[in-house]
From TrEMBL:
Residues 118-195 form the Beta-ketoacyl-[acyl-carrier-protein] synthase III N-terminal domain. GO terms for molecular function: 3-oxoacyl-[acyl-carrier-protein] synthase activity; beta-ketoacyl-acyl-carrier-protein synthase III activity. Gene3D superfamilies: 3.40.47.10. Keywords: Acyltransferase, Cytoplasm, Fatty acid biosynthesis, Fatty acid metabolism, Lipid biosynthesis, Lipid metabolism, Multifunctional enzyme, Transferase. GO terms for biological process: fatty acid biosynthetic process. It is an enzyme of class 2 (transferase). GO terms for cellular component: cytoplasm. Homodimer. It comes from the Bacteria. Catalyzes the condensation reaction of fatty acid synthesis by the addition to an acyl acceptor of two carbons from malonyl-ACP. Catalyzes the first condensation reaction which initiates fatty acid synthesis and may therefore play a role in governing the total rate of fatty acid production. Possesses both acetoacetyl-ACP synthase and acetyl transacylase activities. Its substrate specificity determines the biosynthesis of branched-chain and/or straight-chain of fatty acids. InterPro entries: ACP_syn_III_C, ACP_syn_III_N, FabH, Thiolase-like. This is Beta-ketoacyl-[acyl-carrier-protein] synthase III. Its EC number is 2.3.1.180.
């Protein structure tokens, strides 16, 4: 049998992040406010997690709304038009529809149609998975520019009365535009999974009073009951903490080695903002020199899962803690369990 040879596409020699943007909801929720619902204290929350306050989205503010705001900020900073995007990836675990994706709506709203659009479920590692994919897409020729968004509305899926999670999660969105480059701007992605611990962070379904979820009004109309099943996140905090502390430092080292640099070459370390004690433990294990600034956005934002790394990056660049054009090591880790890390050149 003779068959014609398939034509392949090839893309840019290299890819880099052109711009990073963010969206932080207006409402600040203090530790004292959280302590109205759980038996805890401002002092305990600060010392055990580093969180001083977090932000929660409005009831009528969706994952799609927050994504569009972060996307527009990132596109403006990158100087790239939405019509130049070949793909929109929305990493999240809190878009309340299994289908359709948040990404298709975001692409439409920002004017990126007919860009490819899909959601990515890798929890707190979602953004770093997205950056790895975008790098491969730009270099492989499947898209010239890719928009990677990390977004969460965790307040919708957090049980306000659960002492193990109520204080930790926050809402927000961060975005990055990845495009062609004449120098290597995104190092090799080191990623993986540990599915044997699949259930240490997961959804738990309970019956909730619809009056606590007035924003699901359309569902209320369809239901004759005043209660409906709702999903909350549960977390075996200590197990996740231990895994993050002992297993993520080697992943960081692998990402540095793969990029051919050392910890001393870094201009920023931007780990997932899960708990400041995890960040501190990683810094110690990596023997990170003191001159390398370390992201601490968790203090004001809480743990925003897939949004945490782009939001922390945006803050470090905006506040001048990290230099434009500098080298940053970023690592995401969370439910799955899954992780992804890479060295990037900051836009
Ligand atoms: O983003 C995805 C990945 N997620 C993470 O990486 C989160 C990782 N886990 C953590 O960050 C931490 O496990 C938490 C911040 C969630 C909890 O901190 P911890 O130091 O692991 O607390 P613990 O569960 O070991 O509890 C220590 C003590 C216990 O009291 P006793 O038994 O020592 O008397 C708890 O009852 O703290 C108590 N405690 C609390 N006290 C005040 C637990 N939760 C609270 C609370 N307020 N909210």
């Amino acid at each position: 049998m003779t068959r014609p040879t398939i034509t392949e596409r090839s893309g840019a020699a290299h890819a880099r992040i052109w711009g990073v943007g963010g969206y932080r909801p207006e409402r600040v929720v203090t530790n004292d406010e959280v302590c109205q619902w759980i038996d805890s204290s401002d002092e305990w929350i600060r010392s055990r997690s580093g969180i001083e306050e977090r932000r929660w989205a409005r009831e009528d503010e969706s994952v799609i709304d927050m994504s569009c705001a972060a996307a527009e900020d990132a596109l403006t900073k990158a100087g790239v038009g939405a019509d130049q995007l070949g793909a929109v990836i929305v990493a999240n675990v809190t878009h309340p529809f299994q289908t359709p994706s948040a990404a298709a709506a975001v692409a439409h709203r920002i004017g990126a149609t007919p860009a490819a659009a899909f959601d990515l479920s890798a929890a707190c590692a979602g953004y770093c998975h997205g950056i790895g994919l975008a790098n491969d897409m730009v270099r492989g020729g499947t898209a010239e520019f890719v928009l990677v968004i990390g977004v969460e509305k965790l307040s919708d899926f957090t049980d306000k009365h659960d002492r193990g999670t109520a204080f930790i999660f926050g809402d927000g969105a961060g975005a990055a535009v990845v495009g062609p480059s004449d120098f290597p701007g995104i190092g090799p992605t080191v990623w993986g999974s540990k599915g044997e611990d699949w259930d240490v962070i997961r959804n738990k379904y309970s019956w909730v009073d619809l009056r606590d979820h007035a924003h699901v009004g359309s569902l209320e109309e369809q239901s004759p009951r005043d209660a409906m099943p709702w999903s909350y996140l549960t977390m075996a905090g200590q197990s996740v903490f231990r895994w993050a502390v002992y297993a993520m430092a080697p992943v960081c080292r692998e990402a540095l080695d793969a990029a051919g640099i050392t910890a001393g070459d870094l201009d920023a370390f931007i780990p997932h903002q899960a708990n400041i004690r995890i960040v501190d433990a990683l810094v110690k294990q990596l023997k990170l020199p003191e001159h390398v600034p370390v992201a601490d956005d968790i203090r004001h934002q809480g743990n925003t899962s897939s949004a945490s790394i782009p939001l922390a990056t945006d803050r470090m660049l905006t506040e001048g803690q990290a230099p434009h054009g500098g080298l940053a090591l970023q690592i995401g880790f969370g439910a799955g369990l899954v992780y992804a890390a890479q060295v990037v050149v900051l836009p």
